[in-house]
Request: fold
Amino acid sequence: MSDRSREYAYAGRLEEARRLEAQANALGTIIEKELNILGLKPNMKVLDAGCGTGAVTRRMASKVFPEKVCGVDIDPLFIDEAKKAASREGLTNVQFTLGNIDNLKYEKGRFDLSYCRLVLMHVHNTVKTISELKRVTKRRGIVAASDIDDGAMLWFPQTPRFFNLWSKFGQWAKARGDDRYIGRQLFSIFSEADLDSVNIYPIPMYGSQQSPVALKMLVSVPVQIIEQDKEELIKEGVITAKDYRESLSEVQLVLSHPGAFAMGMTFLATGEVP
Reply:
């Protein structure tokens, strides 16, 4: 793997900023479970690396008040949107900064907790990224990373066309540099970064017709991800327009089925700085 940093594929897009906020809303229960596991308390010094629009940073801020949470992202548009959102919510204990998470401008041992969410799938050298978070975290502090693994996603009724399209998208994304099967690798990454007491917490996220809104929000996440690259996928011959239409028809059948169920998995890794 190259040691150079790479720009997020969807950087600089306002529609992506909106999608990130919608995704955080859809996965809100999962995010709260992660933050509870991390044990955030008032006055903790926390870093949210690769913070995007700050959806998680803002949740953290309410838990560590009056201490400030620092959010860092490489994209100026995301940082601008993060600042606007924090201002709208009247938050005073967040600080959003433009920066590269592989080369942070913080001194060694600055934070009690350094965290990244849905970031490692996009970086070239995951061990380097975690090692940099380790550097800015105090001794016996915690480094944490949360990410997904597409191999843990399942729906009922069966949607073979959509899952075939989703698999093709995953292979295409991998060639571009995005590893959507990173969840299963977190223990290895944290161990190679020489963190102590590494723990992996698999956290299922699911929806059913008991809560149609939650079901729709969960199913919509992968659909929206593919939608962003639909034209390029068709142009490059990865999928056809017919593939896409038929896949969306299957998705609608899931949403209308009285016994519909959808599940995915988030993996939270934690390690202690020796």
